[in-house]
Amino acid sequence: MVNDENLLFIEGNGALASQYVTKIMEIYNQYRWRASQHASSAGPHWSGLADDDKWQIGVPSADDHAKANDKRRRRELDFWFGKG
After folding, report:
1. What is the rounded distance in angstroms from the CA atom of residue 84 to the CA atom of residue 78?
2. pLDDT at 16
3. CA dist., res. 49 & res. 35, Å (int)
4. Which of 7, 10, 17, 80 has the smallest number of CB atoms closer than 10 Å to its CB?
5. Torsion of CA 65, 70, 71, 76, to 10 degrees
């Protein structure tokens, strides 16, 4: 198995750094989701993309599952964007 380590420092350009963080988290979360689905056959199976906004953080009409994950998601975003 090959494990390549990469490190990138971005100084003085918050917008560019935010774009990199967003892409990194997008890729990481996709692999994390796939791993959780693979590990749990009893869990809900993916049935396609949502056609509404209920999956988003902080949407008033969010379902209970999305609301339960808000705290974890906000903590991750705060970490990556240097808040808190």
Report:
1. 6
2. 92
3. 18
4. 7
5. 120
pLDDT score of 60: 62
What's the CA gap between 64 and 62, in Å, rounded?
A: 7
- List of the chain residues with pLDDT < 50: 1
**Closest by Cα among 21, 22, 1, 25 to 10:** 21
- 19 contacts 28 by C-beta, under 8 angstroms: no
Helices (H), the chain: 14-39, 64-80
pTM: 0.42
